[in-house]
Amino acid sequence: MAKQSCCHKKKLRRGLWSPEEDEKLMNHIAKYGHGCWSSVPKLAGLDRCGKSCRLRWINYLRPDLKRGTFSQEEEDLIIHLHSLLGNKWSQIAAQLPGRTDNEVKNFWNSYIKKRLRERGIDPATHQPLAEPAAAATATTTTTVSRRAVFGDVDLIPTTTTTTIQVPPPSFEGGPMLESVKLAVELDWPVAGDGVTSRPCYLQGGCFDMDALQQHCGSIPPVPVVPSASASSSTLTSMAEAEHCSTNNVAAGGNLPWLELGANAVADAGGHVVGSCYAGALDELRWSEYFDSAFQAAESQQGALQPGQCVYGGKDDVPVHFDVHGGLSNWC
DNA sequence: AATCTATCCAACCGCTTTTAA
DNA sequence: GTTAAAAGCGGTTGGATAGAT
């Protein structure tokens, strides 16, 4: 016999939340914070279990939620992060300010998956979909063009190799293992003097704090913001995740931007002290990044290994592109 | 206008991880 | 070190709604 949920056991209310319930929960959290979720329903006068309250708050009532349709940038970022992280929805959502894991997951399942399949890409593996007959007879010299999502690039597996690797000095000599080295130009919002462009480095989906510090100046300790944000803890764990465990995270392993508030800015010296990381992530222009990456690759008549795929590039120009080692992780 | 079908998304379920006693 | 409770997470379900017939 199936185990009954806590709501069943306690005969608590289930299903959609009424506006009155939302108001009670909002008022309670506004006054007292959520504290221990299991005590929230009682204190707030709700006939719900704490778990249900928590979910309602995180997914719907939190004031910092960005609702509405996903932008193209967000979509591109989700696809890219999914290729790196898999179904780690909380970690993916943590990179999308104002989005919840549930929202990202729903968007993936209802929209992106379908779109990738239409373009001949397996959403689970980010590889070109297997075509039974073709797969059996495919050779490494076969050129297969497929539409991909990043900038509608053509995917052309070939045999030569181009390496895109623009590591900062701090990366030299460090074992990179399977991680990806990427230089990503970010637009850093800096108070007072507009937007400052600073390079930032991404490895296997994790931002390297050494590199950040090198290019952004010293990053002062940031006070932990006591909030119900679901994203902060997940990104902290991301710092400790396998992808990041090998030299990718600065000593201490913390990722300061995790705990940043929404309105933090730079200090007088232009040092980033606030949510520039989150803001920069929000401003990532993946399509532009890929465009430039592929242009560089094109000039070298690069190629993909069989089975590799890539997102990005120009619409009408077949892109020959490959990177050694871990960039296959992107697919 | 009525019915059917597909899609979306809020919420639930159950498992895992973390925390506190 | 052990155990129980709480929190976090990802997969799944089911109701609401839009569009098609």
**How many separate domains?**
3
- Estimate percent helicity: 25-40%
Strand pairing plus helix content: what structural class?
mainly alpha
Query: What are the low-pLDDT stretches, counting only 5+ consecutive residues below 50?
Result: 132-331
Write down the Rg. Answer: 22 Å
Dominant shape: elongated
> Total helix count?
12
Spatially, the strands of the biggest sheet line up as: 1-2-3
**What is the terminal-to-terminal distance?**
42 Å
Q: Order of helices and strands, N to C?
A: HHHHHHHHEEEHHHH
| Count of β-strands | 3
On the 0 to 100 scale, the average pLDDT is: 52
Percent strand equals 5-15%
**Largest beta-sheet characterization:** 3 strands, antiparallel
Q: Can you give a write-up of this model?
A:
By secondary structure, the chain is mainly α. The protein has three domains: 6-61, Orthogonal Bundle (Arc Repressor Mutant, subunit A), CATH 1.10.10.60; 72-118, Orthogonal Bundle (Arc Repressor Mutant, subunit A), CATH 1.10.10; 130-331, no CATH class. It is 35% helix and 6% strand. The two termini are 42 Å apart. The structure holds a DNA duplex (21 and 21 nucleotides).
Task: Offer a quick outline of the entry.
This protein has three domains: 6-61, Arc Repressor Mutant, subunit A (Orthogonal Bundle), CATH 1.10.10; 72-118, Homeodomain-like (Arc Repressor Mutant, subunit A, Orthogonal Bundle), CATH 1.10.10; 130-331, no CATH class. It is built from twelve helices and three strands. The chain has helices spanning 6-9, 19-32, 40-44, 50-61, 72-85, 89-94, 101-118, 132-137, 209-216, 231-239, 276-283, 286-298, and strands spanning 181-189, 195-203, 206-207.
